[in-house]
Amino acid sequence: MADWRKDTTGLIDDGNGRMTRAMTDMLLAQSDKSTQRFYSMSAQIKLERKQYYEMLEKTQKGNLEITEWIKWFLHCLINALKSTDTALAGVLFKADFWGKHAKTLINERQKKLLNKILDGFEGKLTSSKWAKMAKCSKDTAIRDINDLMEKGILQKEPAGGRSTNYELQ
User: Are residues 29 and 80 in the same domain?
Assistant: First the structure.
């Protein structure tokens, strides 16, 4: 009977699967001939674990034809690379933003909330949400937001509606 447990990627698997994913990442790192690598097949397989297990089962229980497995593997690798492109674009955007505003006077609450926005804040940013996330009064939140609008960092979203929403300029 196989030894089933959770590995570091969150996949439930026997030791052979963990070893295979670790070796895959190692071999890809060696083939890049780079000291830095910004993608991970293990992380991508975790995201695509349902298809991973389906492909494993299909390959193991079939006639051992591995063409479909290789196609899936390459598709997964492409997804890992695309995911990294998206993540790096976010990091570069954030670095550019803070470089652009390096000399702008911004208080700690504003920095905290701007970082949340830059890290991918989900939903609409309102003064009430600002107050809740910054743990301040709604009046303080409005002052913070108005200050950032005067500095050209935030703007009101054009849609409007019941609540005023804000976004980066």
Answer: yes
Assess whether 88 and 23 both reside in one domain. Answer: yes
Give backbone dihedrals phi and psi of 135, rounded to 5 degrees, phi first: 55, 55
Kindly report the CATH number assigned to the domain that includes residue 147.
1.10.10.10
Rg of the chain (C-alpha set) = 23
Residue 59, phi-psi category: left (phi > 0), alpha (psi -120 to 50), beta (remainder): alpha
Q: C-alpha angle with apex 102: 97 to 104, nearest 5 degrees? A: 100
How far apart (Å, rounded) are the C-alpha atoms in residues 51 and 71?
12
Do the Cβ atoms of 130 and 144 come closer than 8 Å? yes
> What's the CA gap between 126 and 145, in Å, rounded?
9
Per-residue tokens: 47? 């995201």
Q: What is the pTM of this model?
A: 0.60
Which mean pLDDT values do the consecutive 10-residue runs of the chain (169 residues) have?
42 63 78 75 87 86 85 92 86 93 94 92 88 94 95 86 83
What is the domain extent for residue 83? 5-99
12-13 vs 154-156, strand pairing mode = unpaired
Task: Give residue for tokens 């026997």.
Answer: 14
Same-domain pairing of 117 and 93: no
